[in-house]
Design brief:
- The chain has 444 residues and is an alpha+beta fold.
- It has twelve helices and ten strands.
- Helices cover 54% and strands 16% of the residues.
- The strands form two sheets. Strands 2-1-5-4-3 form a five-stranded antiparallel sheet. Strands 7-6-10-9-8 form a five-stranded antiparallel sheet.
- Strand 9 and strand 10 form a beta hairpin.
- The radius of gyration is 60 Å and the shape is rod-shaped.
- The protein starts with a helix and ends with a helix.
- 16% of the residues are buried.
């Protein structure tokens, strides 16, 4: 038991014990001889009367105190009953006795705790009921849509198959690069375009595919920096095929869609070799058109044939970059073509120009063909030159592979020829350009 409670009980019990003791003393004093002696002494009598009065006062105080305790205990009992009915209000209690006040406070704390626990329990019960209701509804929906779920799973499987088929059969190369910079996956297009099988490149660094001429232009650190900063990175870089050939590519690097947290990189590689070739051909065609326009403007601004000849050979060898160009002219009664002008590295070699001094105007080799131009191989041209020279000429069989010949004619009479020499041969676009130049000269 608590020491404070024991002290409180003794405090109320002590006056009662004194009162009983005084009564006992008075009782036995009256019957004994010593009691008669004490009764004869006033001081002792006063003392005993005082003790008696104090005992009576204390007894009355104890009774009053006891009555108050009973009253406050009844309030406590009513308070407990109100707690049980959940209608209590601790502010209505008028309690002055500390121990009862302490008991009421303890009861109140317990009641508040139980009330909070009950409220929390009711809240949880309500939440559990709501969750249970939702689970029942979900179960009913799940049960009712089971067939639909199977259908969705089938569609997902189909989508996955289509996605896999798309990745496998897409014409672009798709690679997955692991965090160490090594190739982890390659689709079928890698074998089609680069001629590498998967086992040839999986596990090897991405630089293994870069052409040696561009290996210094690629940095894996720079690639990872741009991926982390922007999420993607574009580069144009040549790759090599298995046999070492070069192809031009555009590459888009991104984070892998399936697992971005793994730091893997996905590369989509497109072969743009043909596209670049077409772009270059278009650029060259535009360049030739500009040259033709410029040449036609110059023709329109002058009527001097020698100036026209000079502009023609300069354009063919200077701006178009061919090995050589020579223009022949012939009068009405001329038997041989005259060299009107020439240009190019081919004619800087000794003896090359002399081969074209004695070309007969009456030659039938170009008849019906040179109005639109013809292309001759090196040996065919030299064979023609030997057959059509009256003098012995040392033929130089080196320096060019093909020659384009275009005749200037009007009313079925030839007035001259344009010859262009090429080291590698002519494309159809270049032949069309020479025809335009030849027609412009013929009109002039």
């Amino acid at each position: 038991m608590d020491k404070n409670k024991i002290k409180s009980i003794l405090k109320y019990l002590f006056p009662v014990l004194i009162l009983l003791l005084s009564w006992v003393i008075a009782y036995f004093s009256g019957k004994s001889e010593s009691g008669l002696i004490i009764a004869e002494k006033p001081l002792i009598q006063f003392f005993l009367i005082a003790i008696f009065l104090v005992s009576v006062f204390l007894t009355i105080s104890i009774l009053i105190r006891y009555n108050r305790i009973l009253k406050e205990l009844k309030q406590t009992e009513s308070f407990v009953n109100n707690i049980n009915s959940e209608k209590y209000n601790s502010d209505d209690l008028n309690v002055t006795i500390p121990i009862i006040k302490s008991i009421n406070r303890a009861i109140k704390d317990v009641a508040e705790s139980k009330k909070n626990q009950l409220s929390e329990l009711r809240l949880r019960t309500r939440q559990l009921h709501e969750i249970n209701t939702e689970l029942n509804d979900a179960y009913i929906q799940l049960e009712s849509s089971y067939a639909e779920l199977e259908n969705v799973l089938e569609q997902l499987n189909e989508s996955e198959k289509r996605y896999h088929s798309l990745v496998v059969n897409i014409p672009d190369i798709i690679l997955t690069i692991d965090p160490h910079g090594n190739i982890a996956y390659a689709n079928r297009a890698c074998r089609v375009i680069l001629k590498f099988r998967r086992r040839d490149i999986v596990g090897k660094p991405f630089q293994h595919l870069i052409h040696p001429s561009a290996i210094d232009k690629f940095s894996m650190d720079k690639l990872r920096y741009n991926i982390k900063r922007r999420g993607r990175y574009y580069i144009d870089i040549p790759l090599r095929t298995k046999d070492g050939s070069l192809i031009l590519t555009e590459i888009k690097f991104t984070e892998t869609v399936e697992s971005p947290e793994t730091d893997c990189i996905q590369a989509i590689i497109r072969d743009v070799t043909e596209q670049k070739r077409i772009e270059q051909a278009i650029a060259e065609a535009n360049h030739r058109l500009k040259i033709l326009n410029s040449f036609n403007h110059k023709l329109a601004s002058t009527m001097e044939l020698q100036y026209i000849y000079r502009q023609c050979v300069s354009i063919v060898t200077g701006e178009l970059g061919f090995l050589g160009c020579i223009i022949f002219g012939a009068g009405k009664n001329d038997r041989y073509y005259k060299i009107m002008d020439y240009s190019g590295d081919y004619f800087k070699q000794p003896g090359n120009l002399e081969q074209f001094y004695n070309i007969r105007c009456s030659s039938t080799l170009f008849s019906g063909k040179t109005s639109e131009g013809i292309v001759l191989k090196q040996d065919m041209l030299f064979q023609y030159l030997v057959l059509n020279n009256n003098k012995s000429v040392a033929v130089q069989e080196a320096g060019f592979s093909e020659v384009f010949i275009h005749a200037f004619s009007s009313h079925e009479k030839r007035h001259g020829m344009l010859m262009v020499f090429s080291e590698k041969g002519f494309t159809q676009e270049e032949i069309e350009t020479f025809r335009s130049i030849g027609n412009s000269i013929a009109v002039a």
